[in-house]
Amino acid sequence: MQMRPLVLRRASLIKRILTTHRHYSTRFGYAHSRCLVFSRFGQPEKVLKLHSYSIPPPYDDIINVRFIASPINPADINQIEGVYPEKPEFTLGLGTGDKSAVPGNEGLVEIVSCGSKVNPSIRPGQWAIMSGPNFGTWRTYAQAKESNLIMIPDKEGISPVQAATVSVNPSTAYRMLKDFAGLEPGEYFVQNAANSGVGRSAIQIGRLWGLKSINIVRDRPDIDKLKEELISLGGTEVITETEAKDKRHMAKITGGQPVKLALNCVGGESATNLARILGYNGHLVTYGAMSKLPFSVPASALIFKNIHCHGFWISAWSKENDAAKSQMIRDILGWIRDGEFKDIPYETTKWSEDTRLETLMEPVKRGISEYSGRKGIFMMEDD
Amino acid sequence: MQMRPLVLRRASLIKRILTTHRHYSTRFGYAHSRCLVFSRFGQPEKVLKLHSYSIPPPYDDIINVRFIASPINPADINQIEGVYPEKPEFTLGLGTGDKSAVPGNEGLVEIVSCGSKVNPSIRPGQWAIMSGPNFGTWRTYAQAKESNLIMIPDKEGISPVQAATVSVNPSTAYRMLKDFAGLEPGEYFVQNAANSGVGRSAIQIGRLWGLKSINIVRDRPDIDKLKEELISLGGTEVITETEAKDKRHMAKITGGQPVKLALNCVGGESATNLARILGYNGHLVTYGAMSKLPFSVPASALIFKNIHCHGFWISAWSKENDAAKSQMIRDILGWIRDGEFKDIPYETTKWSEDTRLETLMEPVKRGISEYSGRKGIFMMEDD
C-alpha cells in the first residue's frame, strides 16, 4: 500500500520535468521511457507487456535518445516468436522482474543529450537511425552509443516515417540490385511480391538506376489498379503469377533479352518459376519466404544455365558493412528529398505517455496477418 | 552384286596399307575410320549405327589422329537421347546418307600425321585429349585441328585409360574443389555419390590439397568394404545417406568445424540434406542429378546461413578456360604419374577393325543403367 503513491509521485515528477524542459530536460534529470518488453519467446499477444523505466542522464560516451518512429517489420514479429535467428539480449537493466528484451529493430531517434566523451558533432535535436539490429526500438527513450547510430546529416525534406523505414526495405532492395548480378542500365531483373515494401523499393531504385523490371504480383480482382500503380512507380512490366508461368508471354515481354537477376520473397512454385525465367548465368536472390514453402531448383537450371542461388539478409549485411551502409542511407534519403522515391503504404499508431498496451498491440497483430499489407509504424508523441 | 566385292577390295587395300605402314601410313594414303553414328536423337539402341568412312591425308592445319581410348560418360548417352543441352553437329561429311554425328565427348588420340601448316611441335606418336566437347570420340580415326586438342607433353607413366578419362571426372572434381569456396588445408567439404567417378576424384584431390572430406554413399549391404576403400583413397569420413541425416552424428564428425563446400550429384533429399550440413557462408555445387529429383533449398538456409547454390558443367567451363584447363590436366597427370591418384573402376571394350555393333553397344547399354558402376571405355586396337 506504500508503493503506489511513491511510484505515482515519481512518475509525476518525471512527467513534470519532461513537460517543462521538453526532451532537453534529460540533460538535467531522469527520462521516463515506456517500452514494450518480452521475457520469453512466444506469440506477441501472449508475451508482450508494457513497461516503464527511468533513464539517467548520459555520461562518458552515452547518448540519450528519444524515439520518433519505429516500424513493425515481419522480422520483429518473428524475433518475438523466437523463430528468427537474430536474438535480442535479455537483461535486468530495464528494471523488470525477469530478464527482458525490448522488441523492434528499425527506428528513428532524436538526440536528446550526450555524455562528455561523445563526438561533439553529435548534437541534441539531430536525427539518427539504428546502425544494426537488436537495439530494441519499440520504446520512447533509450541510451545509445555512437556505434548504435547512423546520423542523418540533413533531415530537410525527409519525413519521420521516411527516415524510420529507410534501413530495412529500401536498403534490402538497394543491395540485392547492386551486389549480385552486376546489372547495367537497360538490363532486366524480375521479382515476385512486387507490391511488398521491398518490391516497391526495388521498382523505384531500378528506375533510378535505369534497370528494367518485371514485377510479379499475386492474381487478384483489382489487378489493373495495382498494375497502374506499380507502373507509375517505374515498373517496366507488372504481371500476375499466372502470366509469369506463360513462357511465350515472358518471351514477348523481354524480346528474348536475358533476365540476369531475380528477387524472391515468396518461395514455392513462384520461386521455381523465377529460376525458369532467368537467363544464362542468372542470379536468384531469396530474401523472404512469404508462402512458407521451400522451393525446388531444377538441377538442369543450375548446371546448364549456370544459375546461382543466394540469400540476402540485411541484418547480417549491416553488421559487416558500416561505411557502405552509411553511403546507401545517404543515397536513399537523397532520392526521397528529391521526390524521386515514394513512400510505401503505411499506417501509423500514436504512442504517447498514456497509450495502452491494447492500442500498441493492434499494429503488431496486423503485422502477423498481413505481410504484404500496409506497414505499421509506431509514432512516438513528443510529450 | 557388284558393290560387295568392290567394298571388300577397298577395305582390304586400306587394311594392307595400315598393316604395312601402321598408322604412319596415312601420311601417304587414306585412313579407314570406323565410327558409331546417329542421325536423330533417341535411345542409343535404336539410333546408333556402325559406319565406315575414308579420311584423306592431312593438309594445311589438319591433323590426322587415331583414337586410343574413348570413355562412355552419362553425358554422352544423354546427348544421344537429345536431352543434353550440348548438341553435336550433324553433317554429311562422314559419307552417311542422312546428316549424322559421331557420339562421344571425351577421348585420347595419338597424332598420326600433320598438314604442312601445323605447329611443328606436334609430331606423330604424341598423345592428345579433346580440348572441349562435341568432337565425336567414338571412332577409330579422325581429322582434327590444333584447337581441338590438348597435347599431353609426357606420356611416361600414364596409361591410355588414365589419359582418356582425365578431362571429365577428375577435372570436374578439381574445379569444384578449387573455384567455389576458397577451401584452405584442414577445412571440410562434403559430397554425395562419393563412390562415383567424380566422387573418387574429389576424395583424392582433396587429400592431395590437405582438405578433409565427408563422403556420403547410398546405404548398401557391403558398406564396410566400400568405406574402407574410400578411406584408403584419402577420404576423412565415409557415411551413408542415413547417417548423414543424423545431426548429432554429423556434429561428432566435424567437432563443430563448419563445412564450407558441398558437392551434389544426386539431388532430391540428399541435396537438401547437404544444405543442412553446410555451415554459414557455405557453397552447394550441383553437377549431376542421379536421382532425377529436383531439390528444395530452405529459404532460411539461404537467408540466415547465407548458403549459395551453384551448378558446375565442365563442358561450359572448358570452352572459356583454355589455359587453366591445360594447367589442370598437367596437374592431374602429374599426380597419376607419381602414383598419387588411383584410377576409378572401369571396364574396357576392345574396338578393332572387325568389332561388331552389338559388341560396341554393350558398354553403352551398361552406361544407361549403371550411373555409379564401372565406367565403360572403348579401347581402339592399333591394327
Automatic annotation (TrEMBL), chains A, B:
Primary residence:
mitochondrion
> Where is the protein localized?
Mitochondrion
Short name of one Pfam family for this protein? Answer: ADH_zinc_N
Reaction(s) catalysed by this chain's protein: a 2,3-saturated acyl-[ACP] + NADP(+) = a (2E)-enoyl-[ACP] + NADPH + H(+)
Q: Where are the transmembrane segments?
A: none
| InterPro entries according to UniProt | ADH-like_C, ER, GroES-like_sf, Mito_Enoyl-ACP_Reductase, NAD(P)-bd_dom_sf
GO cellular component terms, A-Z: mitochondrion
UniProtKB keywords:
Fatty acid biosynthesis, Fatty acid metabolism, Lipid biosynthesis, Lipid metabolism, Mitochondrion, NADP, Oxidoreductase, Transit peptide
Q: Name one GO biological process term.
A: fatty acid biosynthetic process
Say yes or no: keyword NADP present. Answer: yes
The record's family statement is:
Belongs to the zinc-containing alcohol dehydrogenase family. Quinone oxidoreductase subfamily.
Q: Which PANTHER family match?
A: ENOYL-[ACYL-CARRIER-PROTEIN] REDUCTASE, MITOCHONDRIAL
From the Swiss-Prot or TrEMBL record, give the protein name.
enoyl-[acyl-carrier-protein] reductase
Source organism per UniProt: Arthrobotrys flagrans
